[in-house]
Each structure stands twice: as C-alpha cells, then as structure tokens.
Design goal:
This protein has 344 residues and is of the alpha/beta class. 41% of the residues lie in helices and 20% in strands. One of its GO terms (cellular component) is cytoplasm.
Length: 344
C-alpha cells in the first residue's frame, strides 16, 4: 500500500466485476486517496474453484483491482494477470494473481496481511479491502417465492428478483466487514457505487450488516454510476430510477445522493451485434422518479462504443466525480465560514 501520497480527498469505491477496475483506473488521475471495497460473493471461474479448495475469499476481483491501481511495470502486470490455457490440465483457467493471493493468505493466515504484502510489491496506489474477511454466499429471493443460491446461478433463472442477501458458509447472516472497511466508509468524502451488476456485484457488499449501517451513517456523498445497459436475469426492463429504488429498498432508506446517467443513445446495430449477450437493451430514463427518490441527477454523454459494446467513458465519468468532489469541499468550506461568522 502506497503511504507517500497525501491527497485532498478520500474516495471509497464499492463493487465488483469488470466495472470496479475501470473506475479505479480513472480515479488514479485525480487527487484522491482511493479505497476499493470488493465483493467476496463471487463463486464462478477461477475464483470459485479456489474458494472451494482453499479457505479464502474469491480472489479474482481483488486481483483486477490490484492491476487497476498498480504502478508496477507492464511486464509484471502482464504476468500478474496471466491466465493459464485450457489445455494446461490442473492449472487451466487460473490467473497467476489469483494463485498468489491464495498462497499469501495461506502463508500468513490473514487475507488482509496477504493483500497488504502483495500491494507493496505491486506498488498499489491506495488500498484494496475485501468486503468481508471470509467468503460469502449470495442468495436471491424471486418474486414468485423461489430462491436461488450462488452468485453465478442467479441470472440463469431469468426471474424478477425481489431481494438478495448474503450468508456465511455455515448459513449465518453476514454481519462483519473486513478490517478498515467501516473506517474507510466513515472517513470518505465520497462513496462510489458501480458501474456493475446491481444484484451480484454491488448489493452483496451493502447487505453485509456493518457495511450497510456505515453507508447509512456516513457523511460522505453517495454516488451511483448507473449502468448503460440492462442485464440479463438481473435488471431486464429497468429504468435508472428502478436501480435506485432497489438500492433504497434493500437498506430501507434513501441513501443515494447523486446518480450519474448516460444520455447518449446506443445505436441499434451495437445492441444487436454486441459480443456480450448478457446485456440486452439500453436503460431507460425516469428523471421524475429519480427526483422522487431524493437523487440529484448528473446526466451527460458518458457512452463509449468500443469492441462492439457499449461502455462508460471512464475519463468523462471521473471528470464529473472530480467536479462533484470539488463542489462538496466548497460547500463544506462555505458552511464553516458561515458558522464562524459572528452574530451581530
């Protein structure tokens, strides 16, 4: 962990999957102290195999966040992210970074210590914290009353989700957050949620009791970066207001202060021919609904069309986050001046 910088702002980014590292790479360009809080409910791919054989949280999202925040040279990063070919028998599909995280955890007995050691060697700018100190199981209750267990299985059901929760391996409610997570949330100037899978990347973190309580208590500005596309088996036919309503319902409070939404239309040919069939249609806008839910809306042309898909333009998103941080600090400064002004 890099301790030499003394940035103006503290930002905690909460999530998982492919969206979290994208935002982290952009935030490195701002004058911020970054904390990445990463989901531990992933049970698919290399991460899922490792968590089944070793008592360690799934390392894949942690590895990707390390790569995003690393200042190491390109060759080391390429090695860290290298994934063995499918014809490599036992090692097939495993990323070297995943194996390193698991090995260090086994050596030191502590995942937090393992991440700190690896962060030092990888020249990480900021800190990366697993949401919980142990692997968790994600469970979804559908509106028809049926239940799916396991993050990788939920979307396959193609049913409307009523709620999700997380449990420990032995079936108990997930209460404890990892060391430093609550502190990072409470000290942050801004909390960024997303972009990422609403039910399987973002909510698994918030449903850990200590994290959910911290989110409701923090003075930080809570910002949701809304997905551009709806997602198969999770947010089919969702508007941006639907995303916020789901978040608020899960924590029982209107805690999202600001939402970033893309206003650029995704061309139909991109929707038809996009390589990732997981994403279906563009998220529709419901600005009146967002205002009723207490959200300040920042809408702009955040769309970046590349590799046949529709993604967020990281630079534009981070630029807006930077402006929002500056406005928060200016408001705090003006409020302090008003409080210090003598009463006549």
């Amino acid at each position: 962990m890099n301790q030499t910088r003394h940035p103006r702002y503290k930002v905690a980014v909460i999530g998982g999957g492919t969206g979290l590292p994208v935002i982290l790479r952009g935030l490195k360009k701002l004058d911020v102290n970054i904390t990445a809080i990463v989901t531990v409910a992933d049970d698919g791919g290399s991460s899922g195999v490792i968590r089944d054989y070793i008592n360690v949280v799934p390392p894949g999202d942690i590895r990707n966040c390390m790569s995003a925040l690393s200042e190491a040279d390109a060759d080391l990063l390429e090695l860290f992210q290298y994934r063995f070919n499918t014809d490599d028998d036992f090692l097939a599909g495993h990323a070297i970074g995943n194996l390193l995280i698991a090995a260090l955890k086994e050596m030191k007995g502590s995942l937090s210590e393992a991440i700190d050691i690896l962060s030092y060697f990888m020249k990480i700018s900021g800190q990366i914290l697993p949401a919980a100190p142990e692997p968790l199981i994600l469970q979804a209750l559908f509106e028809d009353g049926t239940i799916a267990v396991g993050e990788s299985k939920i979307a396959h059901h193609r049913k409307r989700i009523q709620e999700v929760n997380v449990m420990t391996i032995d079936g108990k409610p997930a209460i404890k957050a990892s060391s430093r997570v609550v502190e990072a949330i409470m000290e942050a100037d801004m909390i960024v949620l997303g972009p990422g899978s609403l039910y399987t990347s973002i909510l698994p973190n918030l449903m850990i009791e200590e994290i959910g309580q911290a989110i409701l208590k923090t003075d930080a500005q809570v910002v949701y970066v809304c997905n551009i596309m709806t997602q198969l088996g999770e947010t089919e036919n969702f508007t941006d207001a639907d995303h916020i309503e789901v978040l608020h319902n899960h924590l029982g409070s209107q805690f999202v202060d600001t939402i970033l939404v893309n206003t650029t239309e995704v061309p139909k040919e991109y929707i038809i021919n996009q390589p990732n069939k997981e994403y279906l249609l563009q998220v529709k806008h419901d600005f009146n609904g967002l205002r009723r839910l207490g959200c300040h809306v920042i809408s702009s042309e955040f769309l970046s069309m590349k590799e046949g898909g529709a993604y967020h333009d990281t630079d534009k998103v981070v630029k807006e986050l930077g402006r929002l941080l500056d406005s928060i600090r200016l408001l705090e400064k003006n409020t302090l001046v008003e409080r210090m002004r003598p009463v006549i």
